[in-house]
Design a protein that fits this description.
The chain is an alpha+beta fold and 418 residues long. It contains 13 helices and five strands.
């Protein structure tokens, strides 16, 4: 069963628009295993057509042949009595054909026909089991007001009208009928309640799946952005430098090409690692370990090679968990990439320090600061990814102008994760 489909029946709600419950061929498959006749777990493996016609045929077989047998065995009856008795016996099974689309009106009509059979037919015939199917269908498909109004009204009419017509209602018979109706109602309500719980659980499962999928998409986007943005920015800067110095300083051009090769290889390795992790290829992923704080010096050297004087100071007494180290590394990487691309800065500083049971990271530069148009362009996926990393770790993320000039990124995250 496709759990992404929406069921047309809201369990527990009363029918509207004359008791009609709209359902098409597709929604009927999702509306339950019985196609409108209550808790019929035995029908679950049957085709929809069989599930629809089974109550109709069963009611017909239980009501019509015994009625005809009684008529011809206990007669004589006049033709009108025979015609009325046969018509009433046939009517209720035929009414069940509409129970799937019109459960409310059907249960009301079946109740009226059952009353007519009880009060007008001059013999005690077979039980009107079509009424039971109609009650199950009505409650299970949301027409609860119709069901209770029909059952209560029918019971009162049967008792009082029968007494007025001189029918001898034995208390045991009344109690038996009342208990039977109560059992049917309880059975239908139990099925409706189970169905409602299943629908709620299904909805919670869908919401949980959507949340997990969205979180996974965001995680993939962060990883790919952080890997590619840094390396491509380095390649862009080095390529521009190489073109500029190609004629005058060929050695510098050769150095730029070597840096481009290194950056490209690093980016490819990290992308392969991310893709291998997504494919659950643990062997391939383990060959490209996730960066941690021990890789910061190499990262800072790559920015120094591109002309930014990066100072680094760490007073962290104890390394945090691997998850925190990866997040801090990526935030430093993205912050310095933004400095390289947007800040027009010559210097930057990276500071790591202990703050109670957390670690504070601060990245500053001497560039144009927050007010510049260039920095205003950085409010895209890069800053969003840094903020998400900090938030997912239970930390805080701040950015703005540094008191000493330039731009500042400040992150505080707990040292250990639950």
């Amino acid at each position: 069963m496709d759990i992404t489909r929406t069921d047309p029946v809201h369990a527990g709600s009363d029918s509207t628009a004359g008791g009609r419950v709209s359902s098409g061929r597709g929604t009927d498959r999702e509306s339950g295993p019985d196609h409108g006749y209550g808790p019929a777990a035995g029908f679950r493996g049957l085709p929809p057509g069989v599930r629809l016609w089974f109550p109709v045929i069963l009611s017909f077989l239980v009501q019509v042949p015994p009625t005809l047998f009684i008529l011809f065995r206990t007669g004589p009856y006049n033709p009108v009595e025979i015609l009325v008795a046969a018509a009433l016996a046939v009517a209720t099974p035929l009414l069940l054909i509409g129970a799937r689309r019109f459960p409310g009106p059907v249960v009301a009509c079946v109740t009226v026909v059952a009353l007519a059979d009880l009060l007008l037919v001059p013999y005690f015939g077979p039980p009107t089991i079509a009424l039971g199917f109609a009650i199950l269908s009505g409650i299970f498909r949301g027409a609860r007001i119709w069901v209770y109004a029909s059952v209560v009204s029918g019971w009162l009419v049967a008792v009082f009208a029968g007494s007025m017509l001189g029918m001898d209602w034995h208390p045991v018979r009344i109690a038996f009928v009342t208990a039977g109706l109560a059992f049917l109602l309880a059975l239908a309500e139990g099925a409706r309640s189970r169905r409602q719980h299943l629908q709620e659980a299904r909805q919670r499962s869908l919401q949980h799946r959507a949340t997990v999928e969205q979180a996974e998409r965001m995680r993939i986007a962060r990883e790919l952005h952080d890997v590619l943005a840094h390396s491509l920015s380095q390649i862009y800067v080095q390529a521009g430098m190489g073109l500029h110095l190609m004629d005058t300083q060929p050695e510098k051009t050769r150095e730029s090409l070597a840096n481009i090769k290194t950056s490209s290889k690093t980016a490819l390795d990290e992308v392969r690692g991310v893709l291998a992790f997504l494919r659950l290829d643990t062997d391939a992923a383990s060959r490209v370990p996730e960066p941690d704080l021990s890789a910061l010096p190499k990262l800072l050297d790559s920015f120094r090679a591109q002309g930014i004087d990066v100072a680094f100071d760490s007073s962290v007494s104890e390394l945090p968990s691997a998850r925190v180290q990866l997040a801090l590394y990526r935030i430093v990487q993205e912050s310095l990439t933004n400095v390289l691309r947007h800040a027009n800065a010559s210097k930057a500083a990276v500071v790591l320090e202990d703050v109670s049971d957390s670690i504070r990271l601060r990245v500053t530069d001497n560039g144009t600061g927050m007010q510049s148009t260039a920095h205003a362009q950085v409010n895209g996926s890069g800053l969003l990814g840094m903020a998400e990393r900090a938030t997912l770790l239970g930390g805080t993320f701040e950015l703005g102008d540094s008191p000493t000039g330039g731009f500042a990124v400040t992150v505080v995250v707990p040292r250990e994760q639950p």
